[in-house]
Structure formats: C-alpha cells, structure tokens
Amino acid sequence: MTTSPAPNAPYPPTHKPPAIEAVGLTKTYGSGETLVHALNGVNLTIPAGKFVAIMGPSGSGKSTLLHCLAGLDRADQGGVRVGGMELTTLNDNQLTKLRREHIGFVFQAFNLVPTLTAAENIQLPFALAGKKVDQGWYQNVVHNLGLAERLSHKPSQLSGGQQQRVAIARALLTRPAVLFGDEPTGNLDTVTSAEVLRLLRTSVDQLNQTVVMVTHDPVAAGYADQVVLLADGQIAGILQHPTIEQITQRLTALREGAVNHA
C-alpha cells in the first residue's frame, strides 16, 4: 500500500517545491468601526519558475498580500513559506537577512543610488553584505538585460527604462527565490513598460526566475502565466494564461461587485 508523505516531509526529488505557499493569511488595520480586513484567510500557492500577477480593485488587499509574501509586513494570522523557508517564525534580523539574500524587489520608484554607476548599483547588495559577486552570473544577467554598454553610467544618464533594468539586474544578481514587483511599470511610458515587462518575462523563461507582480494594468498582467484576483481581502479567482480581454472583464466584474470566488 502506498502512503502519502508526512506534511513536513521533504519533497520527492522529481517535484520542485512551490516558490511561495501562503496559508490562512489574515491582516487587519484599525479597530472598532474603522476596522479593515486587508486580508481575510488567503490561501495561495505559487509554482517556482512562473510569472504571477496579483490584481484587484483599489482596497482589495493586493499590496498587503505582496508585502506579507515578501516579508515586508507580518500577517496577524497564517503562515508564509518562501523557497521552503517559513517567514512567520523569523525575527526581524533573520527577516532582513532573508530579504537581502533570497528575495528580490523591483518597485515603481527605481530606488537607485544617484552617486553610483549602474554597475555599482547592481552589485550594491553584495558590497553591503561584504560578499563577492559571481562574475559569471553577473555577466549573464547584464547581457540578458542589455546593460553591457551602460554599466559606467550613473542613473541621471539613463532613461527610465534603463534605470528599471538596472533595478531588475540588482534584484536578480542574488539569485532570489522570488522577485517581487510592486507596480514596476507605474512610472514608465507605454513603450518602456512593454520593454521592462518583456525583460521580466525573459527572466522567467531564460533564467528560471519566479516573478510575482502587483499591477492594476491588464496589459501588464497579460505577460504573466497566472493572474491572481483579489476582492475584499480574499482570492476571487485565478486565471491561467488569460488574454487581456479576459483580465479586463474579470476586473470589471470585481469592481461592480459581481465576485465569483474560486
């Protein structure tokens, strides 16, 4: 008779563990009449090596979910596991170390140091940690993101799209378990946004990266393998390889309150 492995048993060698597992995530703000349930029992599994977009109406909890998954905020209840590591049991110093070494971030603001060159900005996490950069991986990332000719330039000498590429390269250099993007194309024009989204798509397809992105833009979400829809702090649906039209229709339904919970 075949038995199932224990809940905490190692994954079989033929199966890759999920990049993220969230169970029963609950997060509230305020109290009494001002109490807001930002997350209300969210369960979510994100496979490794996939591009996932998180979407929902304003106030649906998507940014709160991203922050809890990335260890930037703590849920009131529930658990989060990233790359096999349980975040909810870590203290602040351990969380800081985990974010620095295993999680990448790309934000709407590029967050580059203006006095440093592109190369120095990309390698900054290693300089801060006192660690040596894997030059082979560094060259691979720089080549894939088309930055080889811009490494000596400072942020003021780069376009918005080039600055975001530098931010993506910096996030990828640590080989993170997950790269999180919080509206990463929010400050970019349409053409540059498409360029950055293609680069994120490339990081998944060619570098086997896991990308989780919060966005309000159906066009941006159209680059993802999976779209997670939120409403009122709960999962309201998951779309697999959806078209822009399908994403737009579901978002419209959520905004109108016609929520079909998955």
Automatic annotation (TrEMBL):
It holds the Pfam family ABC_tran. The keyword Nucleotide-binding applies. Coiled coil: none annotated. InterPro entries: AAA+_ATPase, ABC_transporter-like_ATP-bd, ABC_transporter-like_CS, ABC_transpr_LolD-like, MacB-like_ATP-bd, P-loop_NTPase. Residues 20-257 form the ABC transporter domain. The keyword Nucleotide-binding applies. CDD domains: ABC_MJ0796_LolCDE_FtsE. GO terms for molecular function: ATP binding. Keywords: ATP-binding, Nucleotide-binding, Transport. PROSITE patterns: ABC_TRANSPORTER_1, ABC_TRANSPORTER_2. SMART domains: AAA. This is ABC transporter ATP-binding protein. It comes from Micrococcoides hystricis.
